[in-house]
Amino acid sequence: MAEVAVSTVATKLAELLMEQAAVAVSQLAGVRGQVENLKNELGWMQSFLRDADAKQEGSDRVRLWVSEIRDVAFEAEELIETYVYNTTMQRQLDKVFRPWHLYKVRTRIDKIMSKIKSISNKRETYGVVMTGDDGNNSNERLRQWRQPSPSSEEEYLIELEDDMGLFLTQLLALEPNPYVVSIVGMGGLGKTTLAKKLYNHNKITNHFECRAWVYVSKEYRRRDVLQGILRDVDGAPRNEMERIPEEEFINKLRNVLSEKRYLVVLDDIWGMEVWDGLKSVFPRGKMGSKILLTTRNWEVALHADACSNPHQLRPLTEDESLRLLCNKAFPGTNGIPSELKDLATEIVVKCGGLPLAVVVVGGLLSRKLKSSGEWKRVLQNISWCMIQVGTVSSLGRVKTIRIHHLLRDLSLSKGKEEYFLKIFQGDVAGPSTKARRQSMHSCDERYDFLKHNAHHSRSLLFFNREYNADIARKPWLRLNFQQEKKLNFIYRKFKLLRVLELDGVRVVSLPSTIGDLIQLRYLGLRKTNLEEELPLSIGNLLNLQTLDLRYCCFLKKIPNVIWKLVNLRHLLLYTPFDSPDSGHLRLDTLTNLQTLPHIEAGNWIVDGGLANMANLRQLGICELSGQLVNSVLSTAQGLRNLYSLSLSLQSEEDEFPIFMQLSQCTHLQKLSLNGKIKKLPDPHEFPPNLLKLTLHNSHLQKESIAKLERLPKLKMLVLGERAYNWPELTFNSEGFSQLLILRLVLLKELEDWTVEQSSIPRLEYMVIDRCEKLKTIPEGLKAITSLKKLRIIGMPVEFEHKLRTKDISEFTNTPINRWRNVGDNDKRPIPSSMEWKHLKVLTLNSSGSCFNFLLPMYICLMTGQALINLFTSMHAGSNSFSKSLGMASAN
């Protein structure tokens, strides 16, 4: 981490020296030489940090040395950023650069250089040396984390009596020369575990006068291995050995071993050259001295002692694996329950006979419910890595990941130790911290303590959990709170801030001083209560790369200064209610923009704004007039990086053109069209790599479905409100050959849906949402064996009743794994006849629950008096409530 800090500062110094602006060069001239010296010193120091970062885990003094380097690097970084901040602000205010600024810079550089020299003088004392190719700090840390302790015994071992007896005989034999005993096998097969059992066996501890255990690994370092042996056999302190030349402590090691009967375990040797570098260290010693090594390579074992007979470990048999799994998953019991035996067998087969894999999975299962459903999920999700994919989008993109809780705890601990981050939860008040990134996971409004951390902070993140859990469902509550006064100190104190996230924080306005945070790269205002207009000073944030204004439900207008933010990459404006007036914005300078998911149509389209966005990947435009559609579609063909396009027409009178010019958009994967389509293009006129298609208000003709069926790569289709207005819908045979997800939403005229044989053969997930006239689920779904999840939302009682009593029973063979009825909390047991051949999840959302979901959105759009009437009637009773709702609609 310290190496990264120094590298970052050195890079910034180099950029500062190469600054092209004449004014900056002339201002820097007085201290240019000192800045170059500082850069060179930091670059030289960086060369030692690969070794030091690895060594700090085992040495308090090296850890302190690295900490001092980190501190001085941060100090240099602050100096650079403060200098850039002052010169930029003076330039914006048309002020003359003052010489005393240079004097302060020169003085601080001198102090930093003095600290660097002091730190450098300590290097020899701490034994930090230049590193070669094997000095990779991340590999060294990984090696140390993997290093086993010989004293830690594995619980629930499968005893291999024959193996233990054979090895004990070899180790206790009294040969005159040191004899090498080798254990060979692939990773996870139990080599180290067996070696531990032997190392700690009573007969071994009584037989040998001294023992040593060292972990060699792929990242082998001869000095570290030899120091480990000497430390075990002689008790020599680590600090003392670090100061002794290598030849001196090798002689000391040979002298100690030559007088005793010794056992040295070399765990995890990877190459023959490793043994060649170590074998000369081991003297004859007393009769019966032994060397026990573990390796994955049979040739290494033979090379170590050609006269020996290396022992090749075998994988566990299925019975042994089941016994080990039982010991871990059901400690203290006699066996695996009969209903789980088949699943247990599948799990151990997937573990491939590796004891380590069986132990890990067994430990996981011990914390799970002892049910077939839980064990099936474990079987499906077994992945031998610490970070696993959590959820994946319909197009295969990773949306969330899961991390093992131990790795997360370790990351947070190391991050805190190295000032990388600090998380405040619950009671946020605390002492000052040097952490560069601070995250507040609390609704507590006492943020004053953060003032003491302004000197070090580069990222401030606020996450209002109360908003997410409660206010998101009750938007009217937000009107009663204001927090902007609590946070105004941020804009005054945190001048060097790069990241500011105010997710869900109840601020209704931003002060003009927000424009003073000129180092900002990220400004997150998602779910805030911003009203009226953003300050004009937002245009001063020239380094800003992300501006997030999503779900700012009360924001009325964005000032026309966004064009100044030439480094902007992500401009996020979408809200579920109404977008701020964004069509007036000038955008032609935003050549780096990559994400623009929601913006109103305007002159910016024809004024070059869209054509200049060559890096655009995601684009969404609403309120499009018929005249502008052709301009957008024509320009989109030239956007070679565009993979997602969403277009929404202004009125029902507007139409998408018959020929939509999309076949040249070869990178386009997601397309959403909201508006009338008089004639759907032929399949070859669609983007050739289209994966997801969403249609709303399209008024498609019957024959249009046949065209959609022939889209060769389509994986997800959403037919939304008024996309299809006919009572009959037919999916023809062989149609939608690649479709995985289908959503039918608010198709109010749909009555009969037919799915012919061999249609949608790969369908996995289907949603039927408020298609009120649909009579039943199509018979053709019986043959779709891939369907795993079906969700029914807001359908009439008759449809739901038929689904419960008749339709499900016709899809017989396998019981449904989960039945959900969201909304009415129906907890009736599933009828025994209710079976579904391949379905795993069935979700029912009653009509009432849909109303509950939409109610907050509806209330937010009411007038003040209508809102008062509604609240009054809610207390009066349900009948009065219904009447008030009608009055509110009229208002």
UniProtKB/TrEMBL annotation:
GO MF term list: ADP binding; ATP binding
Domain NB-ARC: 170-333
Biological processes, Gene Ontology terms: defense response; response to other organism
Domain Disease resistance N-terminal: 5-92
Key words, A-Z: ATP-binding, Nucleotide-binding, Plant defense, Repeat
Residues annotated as signal peptide: none
Domain of life: Eukaryota
InterPro entries attached to this UniProt entry: Apaf_helical, LRR_dom_sf, LRR_R13L4/SHOC2-like, NB-ARC, P-loop_NTPase, RX-like_CC, Rx_N
Domain Disease resistance R13L4/SHOC-2-like LRR: 484-792
Name of the protein this chain belongs to: Disease resistance protein RPM1
